[in-house]
UniProtKB/TrEMBL annotation:
Identification of the protein by name: Creatininase
Keyword set includes Zinc: yes
Keyword annotations from UniProtKB, A to Z: Hydrolase, Metal-binding, Zinc
Gene3D superfamilies, sorted: Creatininase (3.40.50.10310)
Entry keyword Metal-binding: yes
Superkingdom of origin organism: Bacteria
Native species: Rouxiella silvae
Amino acid sequence: MKISEMNWQQLERYLTTDDRVIVPLGSTEQHAYLSLSVDSILAEKVATEAAEPFGIPVFPVMPFGMTPAFSDYPGTISLSMQTYIGLIYDILNNLKRQGFRRILFVNGHGGNSPAQNIIGEWMVNNPGITVQLHNWWNAPKTWEKVASIDPVASHASWMENFPWTRLPGVAMPDERKPMLDLVALRKLDPTQARAYLGDGNYGGFYQRADDDMLAIWHTAVGEIRDVISAL
Ligand SMILES: [Zn+2]
């Protein structure tokens, strides 16, 4: 149930029967030939589909995350760590005030992982409220599914190329790009990083069969449903 399709009165009624809510976390950044919004599209869609049978409200995805290394690619917006701390605190403080007690962040972007520490810190001073961060793409079952199809998979490669993240009329290269050196990348400034990454794919094929992608998708949706059940 998307928050964007509810009014406040409906949400207030929901709160008399349940205290769970989902907030998807995304990013707007280069994804090679795929949409700049890949991480946001995937986080919101996978969270919404997973929540559907539970009737749990899902907020609109937070479209910006922390992605400093891609700052030289047009369309990339990176929030500072300072901003992100404030963002997570503000979201949690508001949800707490309104009566939500079990809060799930479904994260679609690796650079947002420090949110785990921010959440942990917030929970120290807010006992009685469960907050969980779920990185949907590298959760155990989903990651295992990806690796079973093709272990060479990373940012902007085939593993992010779903029917809902690719762009009409944009052809994908046929090659299997060699995996980059992540340690080397971390030493580069944004200009050097762009020169090193080229189109932006970290490594692997650019596209695989849709049957493979749907199998990964169903695994990810099911894995989030298990998380929701245990929240
Ligand atoms: Zn991504």
